[in-house]
From TrEMBL:
<dbReference type="Pfam" id="PF01227">
    <property type="entry name" value="GTP_cyclohydroI"/>
</dbReference>
<feature type="binding site">
    <location>
        <position position="96"/>
    </location>
    <ligand>
        <name>Zn(2+)</name>
    </ligand>
</feature>
<comment type="pathway">
    <text>Cofactor biosynthesis; 7,8-dihydroneopterin triphosphate biosynthesis; 7,8-dihydroneopterin triphosphate from GTP: step 1/1.</text>
</comment>
<keyword id="KW-0554">One-carbon metabolism</keyword>
<dbReference type="InterPro" id="IPR020602">
    <property type="entry name" value="GTP_CycHdrlase_I_dom"/>
</dbReference>
<dbReference type="InterPro" id="IPR043134">
    <property type="entry name" value="GTP-CH-I_N"/>
</dbReference>
<dbReference type="GO" id="GO:0006730">
    <property type="term" value="P:one-carbon metabolic process"/>
</dbReference>
<protein>
    <recommendedName>
        <fullName>GTP cyclohydrolase 1</fullName>
        <ecNumber>3.5.4.16</ecNumber>
    </recommendedName>
</protein>
<dbReference type="GO" id="GO:0008270">
    <property type="term" value="F:zinc ion binding"/>
</dbReference>
<dbReference type="GO" id="GO:0003934">
    <property type="term" value="F:GTP cyclohydrolase I activity"/>
</dbReference>
<feature type="binding site">
    <location>
        <position position="165"/>
    </location>
    <ligand>
        <name>Zn(2+)</name>
    </ligand>
</feature>
<feature type="domain" description="GTP cyclohydrolase I">
    <location>
        <begin position="24"/>
        <end position="201"/>
    </location>
</feature>
<dbReference type="GO" id="GO:0006729">
    <property type="term" value="P:tetrahydrobiopterin biosynthetic process"/>
</dbReference>
<comment type="subunit">
    <text>Homopolymer.</text>
</comment>
<dbReference type="InterPro" id="IPR018234">
    <property type="entry name" value="GTP_CycHdrlase_I_CS"/>
</dbReference>
<dbReference type="GO" id="GO:0046654">
    <property type="term" value="P:tetrahydrofolate biosynthetic process"/>
</dbReference>
<feature type="binding site">
    <location>
        <position position="93"/>
    </location>
    <ligand>
        <name>Zn(2+)</name>
    </ligand>
</feature>
């Protein structure tokens, strides 16, 4: 796959083609001018281009569907809990366009022995996080995508994150963590099974 090396970050050609780079560059120049910067000074000359590439990367999930990942399945006869926890993610708050970041924990109970690749759970987190987002929507989109494609007995998704719009600006409360959780199927109706999952998530 062709890619463009930009200061340690690989942005794929597909990601670059999926956004209007020129429009972002113009907008970034306008923002810099609007805040009183001299856009002709050396340090800022390539900034609009860099920011455009960065947005192509951090919003690449807009053109992807997390459900695609769950088409990779194996038949394993396993109908007990599967939990992948501490999946790190970075996203962008849709209200302020500043990062929020943390960890996602994804649990499901397969039906008819249909399990998906473990990495697909992490890939789904990447796709859903790389959009202008709300933490609640990341949580529910992952859970619903799994319910729709894998048809498991149940899904439980928990996301823990720190929002920079609450730390570097505004209310300025560094260290405050937001936890969101979504339960579907048997993990919604069966409190004992759900609390078993939460115990595993909290275990070191
Ligand atoms: N529910 C939810 N709220 C979020 C998320 N990310 C940011 N927010 C909140 O979105 C809200 C936007 O509030 P507004 O009053 O419209 O914007 P604002 O004046 O910049 O608000 P302050 O952040 O309080 O200064 C803020 O309370 C943010 O904390 C998220 O993922 N989920
Ligand atoms: Zn915000």
């Amino acid at each position: 796959m062709n890619s463009s090396f930009t200061g340690g970050t690989i942005v794929t050609d597909t990601e670059l083609q999926n956004v209007d780079l020129e429009k972002i560059e113009k907008a970034v120049s306008m923002i810099l001018e609007a805040v009183g910067e001299d856009i002709s000074r050396e340090g800022l000359l390539d900034t609009p281009k860099r920011v455009a590439k960065m947005y192509a990367e951090v919003f690449s999930g807009l053109k992807e569907d997390p459900k695609e990942y769950f088409k990779t399945v194996f038949h394993e006869g396993h109908e007990e809990l599967v939990l992948v926890k501490d999946i790190p993610f970075y996203s962008m708050c849709e209200h302020h366009l500043v990062p929020f970041f943390g960890k996602a924990h994804i649990a499901y109970i397969p039906r008819d022995g249909v399990v998906t690749g473990l990495s697909k759970l992490a890939r789904a987190v990447e796709t859903v996080a790389k959009r202008p987002q709300l933490q609640e929507r990341i949580t529910s989109t992952i859970a619903d995508s799994m319910m729709e494609t894998l048809n498991p007995h149940g899904v439980f998704v928990m996301v823990e994150a720190e929002h920079m719009c609450m730390t570097m600006r505004g209310v300025k409360k560094p260290g405050a963590t937001t936890v969101t959780a979504v339960a579907r199927g048997i993990l919604e109706t069966d409190a004992i099974k759900r609390s078993e999952v939460i115990t595993y998530i909290n275990k070191n």
